[in-house]
From TrEMBL:
Family of this protein: Belongs to the class-I pyridoxal-phosphate-dependent aminotransferase family.
CDD domains: AAT_like (cd00609)
SUPFAM superfamilies assigned: PLP-dependent transferases (SSF53383)
Subunit structure: Homodimer.
Domain Aminotransferase class I/classII large: 31-395
Annotated source species: Rubrivivax gelatinosus (Rhodocyclus gelatinosus)
Ranges that cross the membrane: none
Keyword Thylakoid applies: no
Name by which UniProt lists this protein: Aminotransferase
Cofactor(s) recorded in Swiss-Prot or TrEMBL: pyridoxal 5'-phosphate
PANTHER family named among the record's database cross-references: AROMATIC-AMINO-ACID AMINOTRANSFERASE, ASPARTATE AMINOTRANSFERASE
NCBIfam families: PRK09257.1
Length: 399
């Protein structure tokens, strides 16, 4: 008799993980992987932050028993996340208006939020930026939503189609969920200015939208507080909204899956009810979160000396990326790439949206062993003093 799974079709490969496989198989000794969204140090290595190593040592020495965590995670962790996202001691926290749960990375935070929203309003539609992080569409689609886009990137100006974006938000039906990148937009690196955020907040309020802020790169743009400032704007508006947090990049803890979801509610009572529903979403998906990564982050965030060290190390990553942006501009110009390259230093976060076509990106791979995404996205955080010359020369050759 036929297998139960006989009708299962082959799913398409994840484009970025597929790129990794291709990179690993490439025998070119000079190959450079600028595809993935991962920060590497100047030696091309995934860093172990010193603050994380210290916290790890502390935790391993204490050798605690491995009991189940509460469904919503480590209380001290959730509180530390709230302090980081909303500002310790902020009014919204004092008023008990934020429900925060530990989640499996930023992706887990998005999914728990999506599942909550689906239960609340099954007919709601989701708007993501055009373009957006690839997984946004897939994640919200798989949570049962119809997903469409709002205008965002403008290839002609290498900026944001702000008027069109605002018009789309204003025209969206009430209850529409709008996924917004809090900072360091992936893939374009183009962020809204504080004044533009003010208009976006007002548009969300006027149209009765449900903002869902994805904060995967806090600290990689201008700084921890600066990158989080948009949250303050949404709080000040009095709107209810959601924020997903990822520590994958900011603590270099990718595989530990450390993130969170925070839901800003109208009052304390509503927050308690929302939290109870979040717990059901978690309980029926994976019961409760893992311990180690969140313990590391909680230890670092709540130990003043480690916290200071983390802020310094995060600033180090931010500044190294900036230095690579400046160097790339210089080296591209020196290699004869014409035109205004200042967009590279204007873009925020780990990526540069190079404007290169899929065909040019393919040539970079096959002729030079330089691997970026077909959309033209390259990871600036994977450039270093050893590979940047070759990358700049290769880009110049295909430009
Ligand atoms: N959101 C955005 C915009 C991202 O770029 C990423 C990671 O690449 C995530 C969420 C997911 O982060 P995590 O690995 O913590 O799930």
């Amino acid at each position: 008799s036929a297998s139960v799974f006989a009708a299962v079709q082959m799913a398409p490969r994840d484009p970025i993980l597929g790129l990794n496989e291709q990179f690993n198989a490439d025998p070119n000794p000079a190959k450079v992987n600028l595809g993935v969204g991962v920060y590497f140090d100047d030696n091309g290595k995934l860093p172990v932050l010193a603050c994380v190593a210290a916290a790890e040592k502390q935790l391993l020495e204490a050798s605690k028993p491995k009991g189940y965590l509460p469904i919503d995670g480590i209380a001290a962790y959730d509180k530390a996340v709230q302090g980081l996202v909303f500002g310790a001691g902020s009014e919204v926290l004092q008023a008990g208006r934020v429900a925060t749960v530990q989640a499996l990375g930023g992706t887990g935070g998005l999914k728990v939020g999506a599942d909550l929203l689906k239960k609340l309003n099954p007919a709601a539609r989701v708007l993501i930026s055009d373009p957006s992080w690839e997984n946004h569409r897939a994640l919200f689609t798989n949570a049962g939503f119809e997903v469409s886009t709002y205008p965002y990137y403008d290839a002609a100006t290498r900026g944001i189609r702000f008027d069109a974006m605002l018009a789309a938000l204003k025209a969206a039906p009430a209850g529409t969920i709008v996924v917004l990148h809090a900072c360091c937009h992936n893939p374009t690196g183009c962020d809204l200015t504080p004044a533009q955020w003010t208009e976006v907040v007002a548009a969300c309020q006027a149209a009765g939208l449900v903002p869902f802020l994805d904060m995967a790169y806090q600290g990689f743009g201008e700084g921890i507080a600066e990158d989080g400032a948009v949250i303050g704007q949404f709080v000040a508006s009095g709107l209810q909204f959601l924020v997903s947090t990822s520590f994958s990049k900011s603590f270099s803890l990718y595989g530990e899956r450390v993130g969170a979801l925070s839901v800003v509610c109208a009052d304390r009572d509503e927050t308690t009810r929302v939290l109870s529903q979040l717990k059901i979403v978690i309980r029926t998906n994976y019961s409760n979160p893992p311990t180690f990564g969140a313990q590391l982050v909680a230890t670092v965030l709540t130990t003043p000396a480690l916290r200071a060290q983390w802020e310094e190390e995060l600033a180090g990553m931010r500044l190294r990326i900036r230095a690579m942006r400046a160097a790339l501009v210089e080296k591209l110009a020196a290699a004869g790439v014409p035109g205004d390259l200042s967009y590279i230093t204007r873009q925020k976060g780990m990526f540069s949206y190079s404007g290169l076509s899929a065909e040019q990106m393919q040539r970079l791979r096959s002729e030079f062993g330089v691997y970026g995404v077909d959309s033209g996205r390259i990871c600036v955080a994977a450039l270093n003093s050893k590979n940047i010359d070759a990358v700049a020369k290769a880009i110049a050759q295909v430009s």
